[in-house]
Amino acid sequence: MSAPAATLTVAELRELFLFADLDDGQLDWVARHGAVLDFPAGTEVSVEGEPATCFYVLLDGEMSMVRFVGGSEVETVRTSQRGVYSGAVQFYIGERIAQTYPGTVRAVTDCRFLALPAAEFEAVFRRWYPMAVHLLEGLFFGQRNIAELVSQRERLLALGKLTAGLTHELNNPAAAAARAASALRDRVAGMRHKLALLSEGKLDGEALRALTGLQETLVARIGDAPELTALERSDREDELSDWLEDHGLGNPWELAGVFVAAGLGPDDLDRVEDAVAPAFLEPALRWLAYTVETELLMGEIIESTGRISGLVDAARQYSQLDRAPHQPADVHAGLDATLVMLSAKIPPAVTVVKDYDRSLPLVPAYAGELNQVWTNLIVNALDAMAGEGTLTLRTARDGGCVLVEVADTGPGIPEDLRRRVFEPFFTTKPVGQGTGLGLDVSWRIVVNRHGGDLRVRSEPGDTRFQVLLPLSEGATAPA
Q1: What whole-number distance in Å separates Cα of residue 392 and Cα of residue 377?
Q2: Checking phi first, is residue 354 left (phi over 0); if not, alpha (psi -120 to 50) or beta?
Q3: pLDDT score for 167
Q4: Which residues are CB-contacts of 388 (< 8 A; sequence separation ≥ 6)?
Q5: CB 225 within 8 A of CB 263
Q6: Cβ atoms within 10 A of the Cβ of 293, count?
Q7: DSSP 294
Q8: Which residues contact 213 (CB under 8 A, 6 or more apart)?
Q9: Residue 103: its pLDDT value, please?
Q10: What residues in the chain have per-residue pLDDT under 50?
Q11: Beta bridge partners of 458
Q12: Cβ 449 vs Cβ 366: under 8 Å
């Protein structure tokens, strides 16, 4: 850049459409405060992200504006129109926001610019156009506030849905554990009662030792009991009911159901019969039934509390409350935790397929924010399939990045809409069913926060959102 050339005259300024309607006094201020700068071809006029100190107006030459997106530059403007402006374009707001250049402006050919100091221009502009400044500020801050409010509302709605789903998932095992604990108390009391009956009958020690040994043997087999179909279960219960009825036990179906659930058959009951005298057969069998039920109920309690613990762990993994915000993260753990949190939203007719490459290394990431991305992509896929289809989560290595793919078998996204899916407030859902911020938020998390890339490929029956996350700290995904 050369030294400032002579300033423009009032007449020259009036030829520019931006200043055409200013009066002579205003034009004189611009002429006195504006510096004409020359920029050779290829030089930078302003750099994206640096403090915005000047408002630039193109006088001669061709300029381009680029923005850094997903690790690469994207040209947004190329023009040679005299009078177009760039640089500190939000100067009128002053210090109420951080004034930085929104893009990098380069001289494509040799260019001349009129440069106005942003701070001085802001002060005089407020005096010249107070109402216009109020309107522009209202528009800027209004749009920003609306975006923040809608974004907060979107997060609250998502949190409410996740909380409802988690509560529902926790309620089932908690209720099962409570029922099993209540039933267990009754069975233990019954077992004590039957043991007292056996003792009152003066069962000899050898027979009692044989019975307790047999009890341990049979109980140890409960964990290996085979899964039965409804028909198989009914047939076996009928078989045991006949055995119990033939041996004089009342209400044989009550015991039959317990023994079949534990995987016991007539041969096992024959062994009990051989271990005790006929007079002690019924109390021995009922004592054994209480023992078996106790073991089954304890197994149910362990399974239910384990399920609760698993849900709590999934919620902790999803929220990342006890972890540093940025650290090496396992994308599989985040995907699995998100599936658990969304399990109540996954219809029975939707099949979930996990195609994970478990050899992938950890990714430097804000894990909690990535879980928000997985949530948005999975919820969109479920909505697209309308209750029926296949949801596929796939991970793989793609060069220096980890690829995470969320695919659905929905109707697909038309070509004319595919280019807009990441725009703020754009949604294909009916009014009231979407804010259009989910994919925009996901884009900003993946691209801006992690230097990655978010893409979509879609055709009827196969829509894939692909997330690329760099494996090296500070690296960016290829565009």
Answers
A1: 11
A2: beta
A3: 67
A4: 347, 349, 350
A5: yes
A6: 23
A7: H
A8: none
A9: 86
A10: 1-4, 322, 430-436
A11: 463
A12: yes
CA–CA separation, 314 and 336 (whole Å): 8
CA angle in degrees (0–180, nearest 5) for 382-346-368: 80
Q: Is the separation of the CB atoms in 439 and 463 below 8 Å? A: no
Are residues 55 and 89 in contact, defined by beta-carbon separation less than 8 angstroms? yes
- Tell the residue number behind the tokens 């701070």, with chain if given: 119
Q: Is 188 exposed, middle or buried (0-12, 13-18, 19+ CB in 10 A)?
A: middle
* Longest Cα–Cα distance in the chain: 124
- In 3D space, the residue among 114, 87, 113, 119 whose CA is nearest the CA of residue 100 turns out to be 87
Backbone angles phi, psi at 220, to 5 degrees: -65, -20
Amino acid at 404: V
Q: Token pair 């522009």 is at which residue?
A: 136
* Alpha carbons 287 and 282: distance in angstroms, whole number: 8
What does the pLDDT read at residue 265? 84
Q: How far are the Cα atoms of 39, 165, 405, 440, 458 from residue 377, in angstroms, in the given order?
A: 45, 17, 9, 11, 14
pLDDT at position 409 is 94
What span, in angstroms and rounded, lies between the C-alpha atoms of 164 and 369?
21
- For residue 141, give the amino acid letter: F
- What was the pLDDT predicted at 323? 52
| 54-63 CB burial, b ≥16 within 10 A, e <16 | bbbbbbebbb
Amino acid at 453: D
User: What CA–CA distance (Å, rounded) separates 387 from 341?
Assistant: 18
CB of 169 closer than 8 Å to CB of 312:
no
Query: In the numeric block, which tokens belong to residue 17?
Result: 């459409």
Q: Is 229 exposed, middle or buried (0-12, 13-18, 19+ CB in 10 A)?
A: exposed
Per-residue pLDDT of 201-256, as tens digits, reads 555 566 667 777 777 777 777 766 777 788 888 888 899 899 988 888 888 888 88
70 CB-near residues (< 8 Å, 6+ apart):
447, 451, 452, 453, 476, 477, 479
CB 331 within 8 Å of CB 370:
yes
CB 252 within 8 A of CB 241: yes
Question: Is the Cβ–Cβ distance between 367 and 327 less than 8 Å?
Answer: yes
Supply 353's token pair: 């397929």
Angle at which helices 118-128 and 130-200 cross, to 10°: 110
Q: Which domains does the chain have, with CATH numbers?
A: 10-128 (2.60.120.10), 163-311 (no CATH), 325-470 (3.30.565.10)
Q: What is the pLDDT of residue 171?
A: 67
Strands, sheet with 35-39, edge to edge from the N-terminal-most edge strand: 35-39, 111-117, 54-60, 85-87
R_g over Cα of the chain: 37
